[in-house]
Task: structure prediction
Amino acid sequence: MLSVSDARTRILATFTPVETVTLPIDDLAGRVLAVDVDATTDFPPFDNSSVDGFAVKISDAVAATSDSPRTLNVIDDIRAGTYSTTPIRPGQCARIMTGAPLPPGAEAVVMVEDTDFKVRFSESIAPKTVTVFQSVRPGENVRQRGDDLHEGDLVMLSGRRLGAREIGLLAMLGFPEMLVYRRPRVALLSSGDELLPVGAELTSGKIHDANSYMLAALLESSGVELIRLGVASDTEADVRSRLERAVQEKADLIISSAGVSMGAFDYIKAVVESDGGLDFWKVNMRPGKPLAFGKFHGIPFFGLPGNPVSAFVGFEVFVRPALEKLSGQAFHPRPTQTARLAEPVESDGRETYLRVIVNEENGQLTARLTGHQGSGNLLSLVQGNALLILPSGVKSLPASSEVQIWSLE
Ligand code: AMP
Ligand code: MG
Result:
């Protein structure tokens, strides 16, 4: 049987990133960078004050204390957004606001709190003289040009997903637009005659379609454009017409759940194979052993299991990394954390994903199973906050063993 990591490697090998587009900075949230970004300026772009205070020469302020204060003439008033070309000479200083450029000749800034100038209301006029009660070191309260980064520095690599921090940095460097990958178009299908949409009253033999909503939520938070193919009934014609819509809508990926096992009415396999190819893999994992992967009209296709927990685990283990590659993201294995088991656990030797709640107890992470671990028990996923990964070959572990977990938060 194929190992999880071999299956993932095979899947990833079939994906390449989608095309790129240039977007305005206002539309970059969640997008994936398609170029390396170099700084276009030094930052800060000029020496500036990190406090509201008075820009001084060191010779005047080095020995100032509350017992031997220094009184200086205030020759200038420098607001943020302005600059001064008048040099500061011994015995002089300039009032300066946070972020304003240091005037020529100034070597440090004394905080207004360390002077006798106590006026706090806005639009206050600078005093004629100021008395300094506190010494400063050269460069104190000054942010030097290029302190943070230098022009030409490589600040972000292609493949990085842009969040608030990255967008802030791009704005700081003055990029009005950026080359990113377009969003992958992902078509999502559920299948089964027993499925009713949410809102419909349950009648005998029917259940609500949980997978469409759960997988849509996973996909939308992954930054894709979703094509909803709805629920196919268990007929070849309906499965075919819905999958063909994915082709018309130029999907980059098709994901279905259910209808790919041994049931007498599982038509997805037949339809996908008629216009593409489907590999059935028995992956050495639990839940989610049967995994269908292939192509329909050249579009990569995942057939996830129907049971909701299996579909969720299959998404996290196989679809998420594939989507990351498709969307242009740089590969990074999902981070694991080490936790200690609060109770013994058992499995059958396959790589097993158990639903656990992980809490910090006595300074270390402790993992407890959340109830029923059957592949249809979605409640156990909701009660948990992590998946515990038992490696293949492990059939049982006693309480207190160290285990690896994937956080779901
Ligand atoms: P199948 O692979 O079609 O045999 O489905 C396996 C199990 O998953 C069955 O119990 C189905 O009723 C259930 N199932 C399939 N699709 C969904 C869905 N969209 N939401 C909730 N349960 C589902
Ligand atoms: Mg079915």
